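Q: We require from you a single protein entry containing the residue sequence and its fold in token form, and nothing else.
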Amino acid sequence: MTMTRRQPRPAALAASSAVPLPPYAQVVRTLPTGLHPYLALLPEALSSPAMCRIMPDARVRPRFVAGAKVRISSERGFAYVDDEEREIIIAEGYYRRGAAVDLYLDLLHELTHIRQLDQGKNLWDESLPYPDRPTEVEGYAVAVEEGRRLGMSEPEIVLHLTNPWMSAADIERLHASVVLWLRRG
């Protein structure tokens, strides 16, 4: 099974929890472990401006989001897409205790990967380093664009991009690639 997987951010690296979240960005955190519809975690997701970026076709968007699944798993870690099962996997510890803005942005990032899977893209193309993978750049670009819309500062954005297993140079390269992707529209 091939999966895209991001490791947990230490609490010190979590984006600011002071960023106010509108109703569409508030994640329901009371679900048990197991498989759930995406909309059970983010009931107002279709109101998020980010959905237009993830699924531009307004006719397809409601069906796409309604068909997405999230598995809350007892495994350790963070969030990734299981590309065989076509579901987002989120570690229960992160789901329960992660910074609200990070959790919301990561759910957008991973939903972008579900759409990419539907388009036949290889989410885990090991011929490219992680920060250079087009699928990752797009996933992070969706999150960064939404984070900016919510009022996150650029240092908070960089913290959201930060993962303990990426070097400072990797994070800088990923950030530059995301900025370029967003400029291209």
User: Anything to note?
Assistant: The two ends are 32 Å apart (CA to CA). Residues 100-118 form the longest helix (19 residues).
